[in-house]
Specification:
155 residues, mainly alpha, 7 helices
């Protein structure tokens, strides 16, 4: 059964370079304003799909967010949801109203999602013999992206 949250509504907008077909909740603001498609728009569209998969509801349509930038946080939309902060941050960044605030490419967004969804190691059990810990290891690094963890030059 189709409900307003699951129905696909496609609109046709007149643009300077022709016609744009899209679903308002999944269309980036710049495309809704008639600008040509870009990589940043692809990131927005993928982020909108991720938001929908996580919440069961489409994000606030870009045409609404241009006027009032309100995007309900993923964990607030679905009762009982407890997505990790890195996942929520990655999806939220992909849905930035201004293209400059989004990931530069779908590949960069994929990398952020991969890191956000990577299982976190449990803390190591305490041992009686302390041993040196390399700077890229330990609990302090578990919430940093891989680029921050593996950027030291020591070995």
């Amino acid at each position: 059964e189709d409900t307003p949250a699951t129905q696909t509504v496609t609109v046709l907008l007149e643009a300077r370079d022709g016609r744009i077909v899209g679903t308002p909740a999944f269309m980036p603001p710049e495309q809704a304003l008639g600008h040509p498609p870009t990589r940043a728009g692809d990131v927005y569209g993928l982020g909108a799909v991720m938001y929908f998969l996580a919440t069961g509801k489409p994000p606030t349509p870009a045409t609404t967010r241009i006027v009032r930038d309100v995007l309900p946080p993923i964990n607030d939309v679905t009762p009982g949801a407890n997505y990790s902060l890195p996942f929520v941050t990655a999806v939220t960044r992909s849905l930035a109203v201004r293209a400059i605030g989004r990931y530069k490419s779908v590949g960069e967004f994929r990398d952020a999602l991969s890191w956000a969804l990577m299982p976190r190691a449990a803390p190591a059990p305490a041992c009686s013999q302390p041993r040196p810990v390399p700077p890229a290891c330990g609990l302090l690094c578990r919430d940093k992206p891989p680029s921050a963890v593996f950027s030291h030059s020591g070995r």
